[in-house]
Amino acid sequence: MLTLYGFDVSNYHNMLKLGFALKGVEYTQVDTYPNQTKEYLQICPTGKVPALKTDHGVLIETNVILEYIDAMSEKNPLYPKDSFESARVKELVKMIELYIELPARRCHTEAFWGVPVHENTKKEVKRALFNGMQSLSRAASFKPYVAGDTFSAADIFFLYSVDLASSVAKKLFDVDLFEHAPGSKELMKRLNEMPEVIAISEARKAATPAFHAYLKEAFKSS
User: Fold this and answer.
1) Minimal CA–CA distance to 177: which of 220, 145, 116, 134?
2) DSSP 143-194
């Protein structure tokens, strides 16, 4: 039995939901926001989400869990069998996470919830997103998928990282990140048309009011 801890507005959580859906692997979801309670820290050592409880123990970190899910079923492989091609997909996943998702996250509070961040932070993020998207353009294929002609884990990270990063870039800097990576806008459209992605998007919309209430309390207490 697999138990996934997380919430439906989290992009990392939704990466795993898409992985589960494509692989046809069943799991139970326990709605959980990041927290430092004694009970949850006994499950997840960082108190973050997502976390996956398995019969053998708990796994954290989205890329690690995706690899675990992929190994459970031969259906719709997320990583190529060839060792070099598999390493290339993992490289692209790491590039998207480190150079696009994480910099953009520093400005999420202002872009999405109106809580300002320092101007120096915004300058750093703008530069990082510009460099990150150009780096991805040089490393990726977009023919039509991130790693080539086959869907992979890199596309899952692209979908749920670049969508948020592009919103940050547009709202705060009036920059279209997709212009810096030819083929990326077409890929984003293709991915958002997948039935599994549409279902996850609907769940995300339904969960958003509760998440906003949670954030309101969190910002108030901080």
Assistant:
1) 134
2) SSBTTBSS--HHHHHHHHHHHHHHHHHHHHH---GGGGSTTHHHHHHHHHTS
What residues are paired with 58 via a beta bridge? Answer: 53
Q: Distance between CA atoms of 155 and 53, rounded to whole angstroms? A: 25
d(CA 14, CA 45): 21
Nearest-Å Rg of the Cα atoms of the chain is 17
pLDDT tens track, the chain, 222 positions: 999 999 999 999 999 999 999 999 999 999 999 999 999 999 999 999 999 999 999 999 999 999 999 999 999 999 999 999 999 999 999 999 999 999 999 999 999 999 999 999 999 999 999 999 999 999 999 999 999 999 999 999 999 999 999 999 999 999 999 999 999 999 999 999 999 999 999 999 999 999 999 988 887 776
| Amino acid identity for residue 219 in this structure | F
CA-CA-CA-CA torsion sign (129, 133, 139, 141): positive
